[in-house]
């Protein structure tokens, strides 16, 4: 089963998303900051990364760029609570920024379980 890395400074987001994905049979690794996520990818065995775009230590787009350098085959999903339209006021350009950083999908916080599972399944199919 694919190993999914969740990079988010909110430990509750990591924990809840991890529980959900494990219940679907995925292996899950979590990192609470950008550098820990980068280190996890350097360690190998990560198939997909869900990356929070706004973290205090390192911007998520920077993290995604480094992840792409470390592993050009990694598939990534961008996540954040306030930069995409639909649930919160849209801030122009962020979805395009996520796509430019290499995201194949975006997730809105707070996550709906079905949205997470659907995004992960679609992202893994894109990378297959």
TrEMBL record:
Span of the signal peptide:
none
Q: Does the keyword Lipid metabolism apply?
A: no
Keywords, comma-separated and alphabetical: Phosphoprotein
Mind telling me which SMART domains this protein's record contains?
REC
Q: Does the keyword Phosphoprotein apply?
A: yes
Q: Which Pfam families does the record match to this protein?
A: Response_reg
Locate the coiled-coil region(s) and give their ranges. Answer: none
Q: Can you cite a GO biological process for this protein? A: phosphorelay signal transduction system
Output this protein's name.
Answer: Uncharacterized protein
Specify the taxonomic lineage.
Answer: Bacteria, Pseudomonadati, Pseudomonadota, Alphaproteobacteria, Hyphomicrobiales
């Amino acid at each position: 089963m694919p190993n999914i890395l969740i990079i988010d400074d909110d430990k509750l987001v990591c924990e809840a998303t991890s529980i959900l994905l494990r219940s679907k049979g995925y292996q899950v690794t979590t990192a609470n900051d950008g550098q820990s996520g980068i280190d996890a990818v350097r360690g190998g065995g990560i198939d997909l990364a869900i990356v929070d775009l706004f973290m205090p230590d390192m911007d998520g787009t920077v993290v995604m760029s480094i992840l792409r350098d470390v592993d050009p085959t990694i598939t990534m999903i961008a996540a954040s609570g306030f930069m995409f339209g639909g649930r919160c006021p849209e801030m122009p350009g962020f979805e395009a920024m996520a796509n430019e950083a290499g995201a194949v999908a975006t997730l809105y916080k707070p996550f709906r379980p079905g949205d997470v599972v659907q995004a992960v399944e679609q992202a893994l199919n894109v990378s297959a």
